[in-house]
Amino acid sequence: MKAARFYGPGDVRVEDIPEPEAKAGQLKVKIAWNGICGSDLHAYLTKVPQYATSDTINPVTGEKAPVTLGHEFSGTVVGLGEGVDANHWKVGQNVVIEPLVSCQKHSTCAACAVGTRNLCPLAAFIGVGGWGGGLSEYIAVDTRYVHILPDGVPLEIGAMIEPLAVAYYSVKRSGFTKGQTALIVGGGPIGLFILKVLRSIDASNMVIVSEPASGRRELASKHGATMVLNPLETLIDGKPSATALGAAVYDATKGVGVDVAFDAAGIQAGLDAALLSLRPRGTLVNVAIWEKDPISISMNLITGRELNVTGIMAYTGVHPELIEAVAAGKIRNLEELITRKISIDDVVEKGILSLLKDKDSQVKILVHP
Known about the structure:
Blueprint: E1 2-8, E2 11-16, E3 26-35, H1 38-45, E4 67-68, E5 72-80, E6 94-97, E7 100-101, H2 110-113, E8 124-125, E9 138-142, E10 146-148, H3 155-158, H4 161-174, E11 182-185, H5 189-201, E12 207-210, H6 214-222, E13 227-229, E14 235-236, E15 239-240, H7 242-252, E16 258-263, H8 268-277, E17 278-286, H9 299-305, E18 308-311, H10 319-327, E19 338-343, H11 347-357, E20 364-368
Parallel strand pairs: 11-12, 11-16, 12-13, 16-17, 17-18, 19-20
Antiparallel strand pairs: 1-2, 1-4, 3-5, 3-9, 3-20, 5-6, 6-10, 7-8, 14-15
Family: Belongs to the zinc-containing alcohol dehydrogenase family.
Organism: Agrocybe pediades
Domain Enoyl reductase (ER): 8-353
């Protein structure tokens, strides 16, 4: 079968590899769609810790590069391994994969023992650290990582459940409730998904999006942002300024500040603006994976306003309720965020490189293996 294999930064190859068969406790899934993730782009540019390398064996998957890429995917069950409950799992079911994997050593791993496997020190992802991936024709995967896609939810939307789970979990961690206000820094896929989740909770509260790309600002407006700001045009002395962006948010909220700010950009200026935009005792949720760390943060600002600062690592335990919410129509029009569909042969040129070069018009690219 065809598979897009990750050898290291700048080196993704579409190759023929053996087709997997379902082992005991596994399903064989024919993959329909796989979304290209921002973390895939980072890994293409530079070394990212979670991604497989050629010189280190992943302690959970037992694999090293090359591995098959792709962790945002949906497909159809085509085979059941030995011991799989045939009353629950059936050939022909459409499914989505929850790709986060961990050590599952409950006797020694405190995170896995209490159900927060996303915080396991060895946490990895199918399609990142091994065990196959969504950028292939088939995958064999343990049933514990599979969720049935309800009737009426297209497989294209199924491929968006994984990144949507990041947004859904971010909003849950923020404590956002109906009637509150929010700022989203970064209008890329995750920022736009956060906007969709916020709007599923409250259709009319103030949600501000800060994003430099005009195409993504237009999408933010279309999908419910009360106000969109271009951080390159919020100026002090003719230069872009986090202070000016924070002031614009305070003006928009009549001098109060927002209840919650989400940093989905992962740059210093965005973090500064998010903190400056918060009301006293407001909450900042860092969603982004930062390329450069450490960064600076104003502890005096946090102390002076008694701000709550937290972060999220992927997600845990939200897939069932999220899938139910999508099936019930609470989170709608996700297909409008799909800006391109391509074949696996074009995954580098029309997928990865296109997203890197054209952030203005491209948001979510789906690949059909």
